[in-house]
Every structure is written in C-alpha cells, then in structure tokens.
Amino acid sequence: MIRIDQTDGIWTITLARPDKANSLTAAMLEQLCDAIDAATQAGARALILTGEGRVFSAGADLDEARAGLATSPLWEKLSGRIAQAECLSIAALNGTLAGGAFGMALACDLRLAVPEARFFYPVMKLGFLPQPSDPVRMAALIGPARARMILMAGARIDAQEALNWGLIDRISAPDQLLADARALCADAQSATAAHVAAIKRLIP
After folding, report:
1. How many CB atoms neighbour CB 27 within 10 A?
2. Per-residue pLDDT tens for 73-121?
3. Does position 66 have pLDDT exceeding 90, yes or no?
4. What mean pLDDT is reported for the chain?
5. Quick check: 74 and 30 in contact, CB under 8 A?
6. Distance, CA of 126 to CA of 197 (rounded, Å)
C-alpha cells in the first residue's frame, strides 16, 4: 500500500491507497517506518512523501481506528523517524491532509501542497488526543493561537490560508507538484549524505 522510488539519492514514498483516501493502517505505518529507515541507511540525500489520487491522507483507516489505531504509538514512531531522518524531507501534499496524517507532514522539513488541498485535525470532536509531538511542531510553524484554531476549534483551512499561516511553504499546480519537490532537492542531491546531515543538524 506504499510505493518507493529511488532516483539519484532521492527517495519518493507514495501512499497508494487512493480508493480509501489513502487512509492509513497499522501495516502501512510500519511499512513507512521501515522505508524511512532504509532510506537513511542507504544514504538518501532527500526524501519526498506524497500520495496517489486527490487526497494525501484522510488519517487513520476507520475500521482500525475504532479498534485502537487512533491512539497507537505507531503515529509518534513514524513522525519521529521522519524528523530524525538525516536528509532533506519534503511533504508533497497532493490533496487534503487530515487527522493523524498531519504528523508526517509536520515532521518534514518542507511542505508543498496543491491548491485544492484542505487541512483539518478533528481530535477535539472525535475525543482523541493528538500525537504528542504534533501540537509542538504545529505551534512552532504557525504559532499557538492558530494551532488551537486547528486542534481545539476544529478549523478547516484551505491551501492559501495554510500558506499565509506558514503551515505549508509553497503551493504547486497538481501536474507540477512532484517536479517542484524534486527541484528543491537539487542542491542536496549534489552533496554527500554527510554534508546534508551536517547542515540539517545546524537548523533548530
């Protein structure tokens, strides 16, 4: 349910469950952790996370969420792996980002999105707590009041507002999204893995 492409030091990991809005199962979360570990061990200089279809991810698979996935430590394990990856990480958001899938994007170094993308994290309404690191990373990007707007007031924001807030860094046309993400990897691609890691460690 995920696809991996390796090209000249860039690893592109695609959520490939478009018939279910790329909702995530426990198996997929484990596969994503393994893929990021493999990329790190292989000396990847850049990592791109994207999805197939019109939604990046609707969050947890509903059936598995009801069975306990919504509160699984796997979410935090995955976002931690992404944050610790010693390469440039980019979330290329091909559509809406919702719920627990926020953790993946927040843990990336950069975030691009298509104009049609929407952003919401309905933990208050659903009665769950967010992943522990998500409010911290979100507030660091957009400030505590706007983080409360999303996590506590249930705000649903569009791509332009997300860009204005600093939740994403750039809006890309759907047919240019991956090309734009790969273009941002060019400098890292021409460097050594150790150099990329050294520069990343200098940035808080």
Report:
1. 13
2. 999 999 999 999 999 999 999 999 999 999 999 999 999 999 999 999 9
3. no
4. 96
5. yes
6. 38
Residues ≥6 apart with Cβ < 8 Å to 168: 93, 111, 112, 113, 117, 159, 162
Domains parsed from the chain with CATH numbers: 2-202 (3.90.226.10)
The conformation of residue 158, written as its DSSP 8-state character, comes to: E
* Residue 139 clears pLDDT 90, i.e. is over it: yes
> CB of 18 within 8 A of CB of 55?
yes
What region, left, alpha or beta, does residue 68 occupy, with left being phi > 0 and alpha being psi -120 to 50 degrees?
left
Report the SS3 class of residue 22: coil
**Sheet bearing 110-113, strands edge to edge:** 2-7, 10-15, 46-51, 88-93, 110-113, 170-171
Cα–Cα dist 161/157, whole Å = 6
The tens digit of pLDDT for each residue in 22-54 reads: 999 999 999 999 999 999 999 999 999 999 999
The encoded tokens of residue 108 equal 């990336």
The whole-angstrom separation of Cα 112 and Cα 89 is: 11
Burial environment of residue 148 by CB neighbours within 10 A (0 to 12, 13 to 18, 19 or more): middle
| Listed residue (197, 190, 186, 173) closest to 48, CA to CA | 186
| Reported pTM | 0.96
CA 41 to chain centroid: 20
